[in-house]
Amino acid sequence: MSRKTCGCGADHFDRRAALATMGAGLASALGVTRAQAKAARSPVRPEDEGYMRLAIAEAAKGDFPFGAVIVRDGKVVSTGRNLGVTNNDPTAHGEMVAIRRFVADNPAKELKGATLYTSGEPCPMCMGAIVWCGIGRVVYAASIEQLSKRLGQIMITSKAVAKATPFLTVEITGGVLATEALALFAKK
């Protein structure tokens, strides 16, 4: 049991140390190590521009200019656009809408290994959902840094979220048609 002493001379249970020890023990038992956490940079592929154009087209129809397309085995399996205002739902980002649409008709496990194209780098909420779905690759247009010059952003990159994920490697490709995605902000 983890104990610590304070200035009063009494011996106290150290909850933080105990939880850290338990977490490390559980991770070790499951074979998970911090070294397994990966965000792999992925080069642009020939098909990326075509799918990104679809994501940007979705973005143009959204409440805010964010759109997403999920591709599996060379086929578009879901699309989404920001519907935060329309649905009165601050979690209705393009990526979340695309994921929700997919799982409405398909088992979530079928997202494993898919590629998600998005007009803006996923926020921490969206990247967390991407990770939990097992999506293997994310391709984005405008980066968090670029987007922060146009609207408020949580300054945590998709790479940072992926690096903190010890059970999945997520390939990340950024900057595909970023100028076109950013141009949508002038139209809104």
Tell me what the structure shows.
By secondary structure, the protein is α/β, with parallel strands linked by helices. The protein is 38% helix and 21% strand. The chain is built from seven helices and eight strands, in the order E-E-H-E-H-E-E-H-E-H-E-H-H-E-H. The protein has helices at residues 15-30, 48-60, 94-105, 124-133, 144-148, 158-163, 178-187; strands at residues 3-5, 11-13, 38-41, 67-72, 75-81, 115-120, 137-142, 169-173. A six-stranded mixed beta sheet has the order 3-8-7-6-4-5. The protein has a two-stranded antiparallel ribbon with strand order 1-2. The radius of gyration is 20 Å and the shape is globular. The relative contact order is 0.16. Mean pLDDT is 85; it is low at 1-35.
Structure summarized in a few sentences:
It contains seven helices and eight strands, in the order ββαβαββαβαβααβα. With 188 residues, the protein is an alpha/beta fold. Helix 4 links the parallel strand 6 and strand 7.
Quick tags:
single chain; 188 residues; alpha/beta; six-stranded mixed sheet; two-stranded antiparallel sheet; disordered N terminus
